[in-house]
Amino acid sequence: MPANALKADPRLYVALDLPNVDAAQAMVNQLGDNVVSYKVGLQLLPLGGAEFGQRLKAQGKNVFYDFKLHDIGATVEKATRSIATLGADLLTVHARPDVMASAAAGRGESDLKILGVTVLTSLDKAALEAIGYQDTAEDLVMRRVDQAIAAGIDGVVSSPLEASIIRARVPDDFLVVTPGVRMAGGDKADQMRIATPQDALRFGASQIVVGRPITAASDPVAAARAIISNMSA
Ligand code: C5P
Question: Which atom of ligand 1 approaches the CA of 15 most closely?
Answer without folding.
Answer: 10
